[in-house]
Amino acid sequence: MAYKLDVRGLSCPEPVINTKRALTEHGDPLVVLADSYVAAENIKRLVSSLGYQAATEEDNGEFTITITK
Asked: Which bin fits 31, alpha (ψ -120 to 50), beta or left (φ > 0)?
C-alpha cells in the first residue's frame, strides 16, 4: 500500500523536503498530493535525481504524483 503525503498549502522548499523525508522513512510507492505546479515540478526533479520515477496527474490545479523505483 502506498504511503500518502499531503503537501498542499505548503510553500517551497517544504514540499520537496517533506517528499525526500517520506521517501527515506517509507520508501516507495509514495503518493504526493500538491496544489502548486512549481511544487509538483520540483518534486519530480528531486525524485528523478534520486533514481525514482514520477507519474503526475492534474485535476483542477491539484496534482497527484505517484513515485516508484
From this structure: beta
Q: Which fold has domain 3-68?
A: Translation Initiation Factor IF3 (3.30.110)
Strand partners, 32: 5, 65
- In tens, the pLDDT along 9-42 reads 999 899 999 999 999 999 999 999 999 999 999 9
DSSP state of 12: T
Is 60 a residue whose pLDDT tops 90? yes
